[in-house]
Design a protein that fits this description.
Elements: H1 2-28, E1 34-38, H2 45-61, E2 65-69, H3 76-83, E3 91-95, H4 97-106, E4 118-127, E5 129-133, H5 142-151, E6 157-160, H6 166-178, E7 183-186, H7 190-199, E8 204-208, H8 209-217, E9 222-226, H9 241-244, E10 254-261, H10 266-280, H11 283-291, E11 295-296, H12 302-322
Parallel strand pairs: 1-2, 1-3, 6-7, 6-8
Antiparallel strand pairs: 3-10, 4-10, 4-11, 5-8, 5-9
Helix pairs in contact: 2-10, 4-12
Amino acid sequence: MKRTLGAIAALFAGSLMLAAQPAQAQQDFPNKPITIVVPLAAGSGMDSLVRLYADKLQQSLGKPVIVENKPGAALMLAAAAVAAAPADGYTLLVSTSSAMAINLVLYKKVNYDAVKDFTPVSFYVKSPFILVVNPDIKANTVPELIKVVKESTTPLSYSSPGAGVAQHLSMEYMKQRFGLTIAHVPYRNTPQSISDIVAGHVQLGFAEAGASLPLIREGKLRALAVSSSTRLPTLPDVPTFAEAASAPDFEAVSWHMLFAPAATPKPVLDKLHAAMSKIMADPEMKQRASAIGLLPIDPPSIPDTVKYLASEREKWGSLVRKLGLEGSQ
């Protein structure tokens, strides 16, 4: 009997030790290098910003933070890789509305479940677009452009870097909101789609700030509005749609978020979220993000970010379906 009780006691003590190990690991986090997987190539605006905050995260957490670039498959290669990683906080993903909202409906096959496989860690910047027109278009404001579009005997056309990308969907969102008919001309990449607005082959488009700012400053493009709910620091004189067209709820932006595999323990997520919130409050980080045409934000709580993600998936998913693009890629 004594032996039996001793064995039970030993098993109980062993189970307590095993149960304590994960908790201790969470308390000790991090105790090895962290890898942040970026879905774009080195040197991109996203990559530059990630490398900047990775350095600061390394200082804050006291362990190396490695940036690994894994471009390909419309940002989905990186997402699939991190979805399969251990849920321990040591492998993180930076992603956008394309991979985490739009592609889920646009593509026939997606090798991860954006809802079930991931949890957000930090929502730290929005990536707005600028509504730009060729300077020959006789419109200096959004209402004037709407008038030109509606009165034109020949339909105007707009460019985008491809069917189903954020710029394309943002323009379709604008068209539906204001009852406009504008023909879509898809291109293979952003530079070509913007250069053809400058050349007058198409009349307008939503352009990324980083790619269009030099052309706007040179007078080769005219900026009418930004697609975010707040103005861009780099274009303080260009109004938002809320200001330009009496559309207070209009927002059509992409964003950058830091994600972790879904089962990552809450204490680990909370520690990473707190570190990112402190980093993004740094004036240097805000200035660097603004300089490349992004809108730095104070990271909302993780539950609030989950709600925002759900609203973005509904918004863009329903639009993809309305356009008949579901499963088209």
